[in-house]
Design goal:
Blueprint: H1 2-6, H2 31-49, E1 58-62, H3 64-75, E2 81-85, H4 109-114, E3 128-133, H5 144-155, E4 160-165, H6 175-192
Helix pairs in contact: 2-3
């Protein structure tokens, strides 16, 4: 994070995006709405504090954070760019639950469909950088998750780039891959958030 601060970016790290259930509803029943409200509140706060420009904000995350990132890009226009690393984007590929969701796909098929950014790939028009380790052995985030979302966004004319890191699992370890990831992310932010060269 320190690197991007030195490049003129304000960084919100570990921002809390609570998703809660109310009454007899479970938290994921209103996941998308609450996710967008949280993002909007965060953006408004940095603008109010004078540390960020609300019209030039990027969002990014790893694993579940990547899932949240792509859902935000599919359901709102608050961001200039997104970076999603090693995420799960089609919840039907994790049919026996995920994170704090205990219902199976067969108990709540609409929920699995609506929480899958893959279902709304045609709506993702904000530039998205996707990064994934080619040997990801996390059962919820096999590389096919990124491959299929990339193809779906590209097929609908969206701006997307997919980078696969060789020999990497769910977390990245090789110095060369980490440096490559940082370079890719920096180029993406410079092009689509700072609008360098436009």
């Amino acid at each position: 994070m320190v690197f991007w601060v030195t490049q003129g970016y304000a960084v919100m790290d570990n921002a809390e995006f609570p998703i809660v259930g109310e009454g007899d509803k479970q938290p994921n029943d209103n996941f998308i709405e609450q996710l967008v409200w949280n993002a909007e509140a965060g953006i408004n706060k940095i603008a109010e504090m004078g540390v960020g420009d609300s019209s030039r904000v990027a969002v990014g995350g790893h694993s579940y954070g990547a899932f949240m990132t792509t859902n935000l890009l599919a359901h709102c226009n608050l961001f200039k760019a997104g970076i999603a690393r090693s995420g799960a984007y089609n919840r039907t590929l994790t049919p026996f639950g995920f994170q704090n969701e205990e219902r199976t796909y067969w108990q709540a098929p609409d929920l699995y469909f609506n929480m899958s950014p893959f279902s709304f790939a045609d709506k993702i028009k904000t530039p998205l950088l996707m990064i994934h380790g080619e040997a990801d052995n996390n059962p919820g985030t096999f590389p096919i998750q990124s491959e299929r979302l990339y193809n779906a966004i590209k097929g609908h004319g969206g701006t997307v780039r997919f980078v696969q890191l060789p020999y990497e699992s769910h977390g990245y370890a090789a110095k060369e891959n980490i440096l490559h990831m940082l370079w890719e992310q920096h180029q993406w932010l410079e092009k689509y958030v700072k609008l360098k060269g436009k």
